[in-house]
Amino acid sequence: QIPKTQKAAIVAVEGASVQVKDHPVRDPESLGPGECLVKLHCSGVCHTDLHAALGDWPVKPKTPLIGGHEGVGEIVAIGKNTTNSPVKMGQRVGIKWIADSCLNCVQCRNGHEQNCINVKLSGYTVDGTFQQYVVSWVNAVTPIPDGIESEAAASILCAVSSYPLPPTAPLTNVTTKGLTVYRALKYSETNPHEWVVIPGAGGGLGHLAVQYAKYMGRRVIAIDGGEEKRKLCLSLGADHWIDFTQCKDIVGEIKKVTDGYGAHAAVVTTASTSGYVQAVDYLRDNGHLMAVGLPAKATLDASIFFTVFKSITIHGSYVGNRQDAIEAIDIAASGAVKCHYQMKKLSDIQSVYDDLGKGKIAGRIVLSV
Ligand code: 8ID
Ligand code: ZN
């Protein structure tokens, strides 16, 4: 039985604290074709949700806003006159950042759904997963396979953008199927045994990037701050650890570890500008800077001379499409990549935001809803 009201975490206006309150559940009778109602089990909390609550990005979220884009739950209603739904009533599905895309614009037709001109963004332009019942779209939800718990799957839905490897790389113990479509992966052009630097490696996206990179045989230099994150990164297989709060010469250290040449790629997953600052300097010639972290108001300060002289590629990597999400979940369900998470309650959300803002969370917090 679907209730009339539910608990939801609501930000009333930009920058306001988040309040957990009673909120109406969308009447299933009012769902249109293609819409569905998902009863959520849990939702990961991403640094993006904090940016949304603060309203600090140049592209503004709706208000009042229910945030969240790493949700897993089950379909409890499908809109009338929905035809050819790829998902069924009762099926377990994930809600990711791209809540829906039109599939008809030129970007969608080219597979770049994240750049759809009619895109809907979960917890940003439409209400997201920090509530018990979320409205979603049958064509956009991600089916969750049986082999993975909802809590473990939640944040994988957002990890797609930080997968740092190319589809052309020799693959040993995996099928190419799982790999060809991740966006960052297509362009970082690294091979097994090559060096990938991951600033922000102890955070939500970063700790998953470390694992995907190791899974594919890359050597990883993890950069983050503090003992807890050091332990996490090394336990996930990072080959070298740099504490940005202590190291006085990050470029020198990376050069030393990489035989003087510098790293082949950097996948920057910090929410702060500082993580970007020296990337062009510690990359080797023909290196790739994969920009994933989204500091609010920063510009990328890279030497134009050395970007050209060293033939550096700077590449913005923005989430992934529906297929990317399906395959990222598949790899996680196979056990190769695990989200390191701690469970909290929806009512703890404000304190989770406070900790995220201070860089205190190693891995992810997942909220039960
Ligand atoms: O599609 C995308 N590009 C995408 C998708 C999802 C999230 C981008 N993001 C963005 C978020 O909006 C956010 O800006 O990626 C950024 C990181 O998200 P997250 O992983 O959810 O954030 P986190 O868990 O807070 O991790 C960030 C880590 O960076 C470290 C922190 O200690 C933390 O562990 N860090 C900081 I702050 N400054 C650093 C520095 N100078 C640093 N690590 C290394 N060097
Ligand atoms: Zn996210």
From TrEMBL:
SMART domains: PKS_ER. Pfam families: ADH_N (PF08240), ADH_zinc_N (PF00107). It comes from the Eukaryota. Its EC number is 1.1.1.1. GO terms for cellular component: cytoplasm. Coiled coil: none annotated. Residues 15-367 form the Enoyl reductase (ER) domain. Gene3D superfamilies: Medium-chain alcohol dehydrogenases, catalytic domain, NAD(P)-binding Rossmann-like Domain. CDD domains: CAD3 (cd08297). The keyword Zinc applies. Its cofactor is Zn(2+). GO terms for molecular function: alcohol dehydrogenase (NAD+) activity; metal ion binding. InterPro entries: ADH-like_C, ADH-like_N, ER, GroES-like_sf, NAD(P)-bd_dom_sf. Keywords: Metal-binding, NAD, Oxidoreductase, Zinc. Belongs to the zinc-containing alcohol dehydrogenase family. This is alcohol dehydrogenase.
